[in-house]
């Protein structure tokens, strides 16, 4: 009975981890669509009646785009940070280190939970209720110059108060449920705010972290050691035998199964890229309607999400069979990359897939081209100026030489001679050669 309960509890733990992984990925991917720039041929969105929407800012979500150079450096920087944390926990008192970590993540987590809560409020609170919610606007100015503004409602205040209470509760108790709420909020916000500029960048990132995960999990004890000692919401966890705890069959233990947030966020931003590509292709084929609408075909997004679930299930199956920690990206990276390539191959869209870039990258390209064009024009201008300066110098030198020549000729012509008569014009001197008289 007890062994059966543990087995069932373990399967429940695996299912819970998968739910806490795929949920933030789907939510964060849809939230990332708010950061897409509206095409020039797309109509402006209608003004929302919801006080939770800021109508003054059409592009509400500001994203941080990762380029291919960032993707190449990601495993290197990640390795440095991971090994540094390992050394810190090994040689310093981890109690005080975790105090600092808890303080930092409490502040950041408070903001993350508030933002996630507002995201959910926009979806679940009926518009008929929101219409009766008052909206306030705080504007910061300096001598009549507008600096910034912020809009808020009582719902914002309620979410902020809730996040503060939850942060204090987690800091004092380290409760695993509160920790999961923080972890899920971090994942959703990271997937929304981080974006890949192209599929090439995404494939470079996943491939690099594929080898990164293998080395630090199989090659050393560093990854597992840091995950166990790092007392912060950087992972989602679930008790291995929650049934025994709920039914009172056995005492609650600290036996948890866990999944790092990196195994959610990194594949998550790739899945979000697939959704943005689906939006791009759908608008390219049929540029009508509301660009912000989420009702469009999503072949790449759905396929990649399914492959992610399959890769995560494979990870847990291998971990269960061999009873050893597994690098999740060993299975997730190939799954995500293959899903996109197979879908593009079936739909004959490989060219479009690899040519696709985000608006941010296009802007960077245009800026770079303008910069290079400006440099080229400046260089040509400098060359022309040098030519003009040289021509001017040559002209001055020629005039100077001609003047000098004229002066020399004039000097020879008017050279005076001694006039013994004391009158008349000077005459050229004629000296007779002196010689012996014969």
UniProtKB/TrEMBL annotation:
Protein's UniProt keywords contain Transmembrane: yes
Localization: Endoplasmic reticulum membrane
Compositionally biased region (Basic residues): 428-438
Pfam family for this entry, one: Peptidase_A22B
Region (Disordered): 40-60, 358-438
UniProt record, GO biological process: membrane protein proteolysis; signal peptide processing
Biased amino acid composition, Basic and acidic residues: 374-390
A GO cellular-component term linked to this record: cytoplasmic side of endoplasmic reticulum membrane
InterPro entries: Peptidase_A22B_SPP (IPR007369), Preselin/SPP (IPR006639)
Transmembrane intervals: 12-33, 71-89, 96-114, 150-170, 201-219, 255-275, 300-322, 328-346
Domain of life: Eukaryota
GO function terms (MF aspect): aspartic endopeptidase activity, intramembrane cleaving
Family: Belongs to the peptidase A22B family.
Protein name: Minor histocompatibility antigen H13
Source organism of the structure: Apophysomyces ossiformis
């Amino acid at each position: 009975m007890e062994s059966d309960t543990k087995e069932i509890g373990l399967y429940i733990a695996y299912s819970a981890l998968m739910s806490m992984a795929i949920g933030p990925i789907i939510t964060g991917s849809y939230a990332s669509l708010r950061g897409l720039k509206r095409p020039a041929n797309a109509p402006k969105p209608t003004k929302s009646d919801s006080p939770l929407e800021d109508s003054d800012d059409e592009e509400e979500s500001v994203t941080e785009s990762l380029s291919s150079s960032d993707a190449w450096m990601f495993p290197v920087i990640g390795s440095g940070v991971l090994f540094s944390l390992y050394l810190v926990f090994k040689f310093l008192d981890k109690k005080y280190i975790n105090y600092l970590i808890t303080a930092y993540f409490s502040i950041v987590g408070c903001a993350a939970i508030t933002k996630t809560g507002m995201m959910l409020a926009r979806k679940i609170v009926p518009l008929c209720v929101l219409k009766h919610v008052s909206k306030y606007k705080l504007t910061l100015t300096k001598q009549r110059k507008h600096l910034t503004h912020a809009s808020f409602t009582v719902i914002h205040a309620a979410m902020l108060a809730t996040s503060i209470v939850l942060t204090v509760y987690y800091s004092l108790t380290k409760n695993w449920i509160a920790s999961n709420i923080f972890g899920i909020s971090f994942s959703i916000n990271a997937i929304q705010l981080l974006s890949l500029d192209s599929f090439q960048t995404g494939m470079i990132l996943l491939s690099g972290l594929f080898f990164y995960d293998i080395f630090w999990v199989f090659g050393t004890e560093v990854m597992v050691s840091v995950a166990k000692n790092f007392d912060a919401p950087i992972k989602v966890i679930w008790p291995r035998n929650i049934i025994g705890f709920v039914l009172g069959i056995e005492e609650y233990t600290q036996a948890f199964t866990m999944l790092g947030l990196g195994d959610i966020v990194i594949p998550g931003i790739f899945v979000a890229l697939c959704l943005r590509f689906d939006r791009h292709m759908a608008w390219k084929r049929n540029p009508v309607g509301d660009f912000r609408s989420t009702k469009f075909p999503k072949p790449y997004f759905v396929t990649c999400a399914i492959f992610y679930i399959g890769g995560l299930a494979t990870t847990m199956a291998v971990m269960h069979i061999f009873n050893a920690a597994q690098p999740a990206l060993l299975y997730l990276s190939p799954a995500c990359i293959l899903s996109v390539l197979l879908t593009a191959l079936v739909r004959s869209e490989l060219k479009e897939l690899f040519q696709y870039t985000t608006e941010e990258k296009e802007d960077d390209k245009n800026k770079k081209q303008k910069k290079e064009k400006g440099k080229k024009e400046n260089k040509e201008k400098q060359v022309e100026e040098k030519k003009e300066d040289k021509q001017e110098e040559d002209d001055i030198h020629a005039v100077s030489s001609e003047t000098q020549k004229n002066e020399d000729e004039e000097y020879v012509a008017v050279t005076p001679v001694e006039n013994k008569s004391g009158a008349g014009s000077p005459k050229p001197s004629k000296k007779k050669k002196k010689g012996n008289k014969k």
